[in-house]
Design goal:
By secondary structure, this protein is mainly alpha-helical. Helix content is about 75%, strand content about 0%. The longest helix is centred in the last third of the chain and has 39 residues.
């Protein structure tokens, strides 16, 4: 039961940060002139890129923080502010990051990173390792990557079923959850730096 609870608590923030359903319109836009084989190849390369970026940051992120003499609490507060800012921007403008020009729309950039694994996901990964075992965070990240791969591959069916309005609504709910997670991470970092303050 403890394993299941921990898995849910590590899987959910990553699921919200990656926002696979909210990114379905991006996948549809990138693949509109592709045949099925080209689309599958684009999605596979994008997920592979996202997984490698996330894994590298997960394994070496703490080492980089140590070299820069940055405590996890500092990173938690900064990361929480980034999560909150990204969520607020998405709620206000409808996008977390600026879309690049058509020529730059490839599987690696922007679909692999920063859309699938960007600042929100990287921040969530490093913050989770402060509270949970590395292998559990790795498992949750792997499950999220597998789920994202399925969602992207089935994006045309999901888009047809939910419609633009449904996809937009899901994306907004995810942004609200991301904002709440950002606030929680900020408070957690403040408690770590100032134990008697909160």
């Amino acid at each position: 039961m403890d394993f299941f609870n921990s898995l849910v608590l590590t899987f959910t923030p990553l699921f919200v940060a990656i926002d696979a359903l909210g990114n379905v319109p991006v996948v549809l836009s990138l693949s509109q002139d592709m045949d099925q084989r080209q689309k599958h190849r684009m999605v596979s390369i994008a997920i592979m890129t996202a997984a490698l970026v996330g894994l590298a940051f997960l394994l070496f992120g703490r080492l980089v923080l140590g070299l820069l003499n940055i405590q996890v609490y500092h990173f938690a507060i900064a990361g929480g502010l980034i999560l909150l800012a990204l969520a607020v921007r998405d709620l206000a403008t409808g996008k977390m990051v600026d879309a690049p020009s058509k020529e730059e729309m490839t599987a690696v950039v922007p679909l692999g990173t920063p859309i699938t694994v960007g600042p929100a996901t990287l921040t969530t990964l490093i913050v989770l390792t402060d509270s949970y075992n590395l292998w559990l965070v790795l498992l949750s990240f792997a499950l999220n990557m597998a789920l994202t791969w399925i969602v992207f591959h089935k994006s045309h069916l999901i888009g047809r079923f939910m419609g633009q309005g449904g996809l937009r609504a899901v994306s907004k709910v995810m942004s609200l959850l991301l904002a709440a997670i950002g606030v929680r991470v900020i408070i957690s970092g403040m408690k770590g730096l100032f134990p008697g303050l909160l």
